[in-house]
Amino acid sequence: MQLTRRLGYLLALLAPIASAAELVGSTVPPYPEGLISKYGSCVALSLGVKRECDYAVGILERPDGKPVVLVGERLVKRDDQRKAIWIITDTLPYPTLPEGYLLAIANCRIDGKADRTIIAAVRNEDAEWLGTVLWARRFDLSKEKFMEQSTAGVQCQNEAAGL
Fold this sequence. Notes:
This protein folds into two domains: 2-93, no CATH class; 101-157, no CATH class. Strand 11 (133-140) and strand 12 form a beta hairpin. The chain has two helices and 13 strands. The chain has helices at 2-13, 18-23; strands spanning 27-28, 36-42, 55-61, 67-78, 84-93, 101-105, 108-110, 113-114, 118-123, 129-130, 133-140, 145-149, 154-157. Keywords: Signal.
């Protein structure tokens, strides 16, 4: 049953979204009509503090707040107001998550070592570190692509722990 459920969620993750693939190579902002960027996180701390925002992972959503796609982005430049201009290098359809699960971005670790490039679907529990991982991906900085990541050893910080 567990394997069947995981397979179903992985297939949902891979469900095609026509606009997602078309985003690759786009310079943003502005974002395509009907998509809004409301969340993003710098993921390149491994390149050093001065370069930690050279790459980011973000969520694009519809105006009604429904998340649609995850984007991997590379910093191109900053505009006159110092706002970041990105090129989208890869996309993933936003996964359909089962009840009680959340998407953790840039706050995970693997085998106890912080890795901001990991994105994981984790079960929300009353713990500082969430270790029940449905699936995980990693934004590979050298390839500028989302890559499969084993769930073994992945934990993500529960930002609501202790509240």
